[in-house]
């Protein structure tokens, strides 16, 4: 009797129509992940539009050639070069006039009048530098906030794609890391970074205009401590992300293999086909993950490249003007410019560290997410 029932069940299964294995297409996965709602600023949107790249078509990033990318970077560099050059020539003119008035002051026996020349020179340089310095401070704060907003809208999209391909653990680890870093960057910028930079700017001005005060060592000390702190944060974050990426990738691999084994073992007759379909789906989602991640990295780079270039060029202009003032023997102006160069260097280091950590976390999850079996 059992043999007859078993034979009947086998005949029914044999003559049943093929069991369809349905899977979301890439377009459906992108639509459900919210890729069309990722927030980018106008400049980044124009860059992506000019190169026909979009988050809804991740494979469009393959159309961007290295020559086009280098040309775009060169055009960005040229666009940011005018203001720093103007600042350098203005400071150079101040240095030349200061050297001339300093020579006149040395011919006067009144040392108080000679000191007044130094104070006047420093204040003229301060009036020239205040607007660019404030622009740099605002640019650092605005870039970190814009980058945080972009990553807060981009991380859920990439995490949902990772989860759709079986990388549930990797998705949760990545989203937690990006959310924590973005919120921490915004809080530190508002509460500590901007006040610290403005305090150092004030100390640099006082160090230049008042010969009895010497705040240059304080500025250098704060910069050195900040550099050590940034290096420690980068080391800890990179190490933690690397370890978590490897562990989460291993956990996702185990879960994927267990799922494939269950499908092939527990589903009668078509279990192997279902398992192969699941493998195909994971491969398709892997392509989608790499494409969306690549577009996200490109968009973040296009967003932060102009501010980083402008800040770096301003720093070079101030450094070159400070060297010129030192060669001309204008001590007060040289102290001012070297102190402000230290401040700009600190701001540039903080911004580059923030961007590097965001890019690295995305790159690690893309690479680790593709190691699963």
Automatic annotation (TrEMBL):
InterPro entries: Spore_III_AE (IPR014194). Keywords: Membrane, Transmembrane, Transmembrane helix. The keyword Membrane applies. It holds the Pfam family Spore_III_AE. The chain crosses the membrane at residues 83-104, 116-133, 153-177, 184-205, 225-249, 293-314, 343-368. This is Stage III sporulation protein AE (Spore_III_AE).
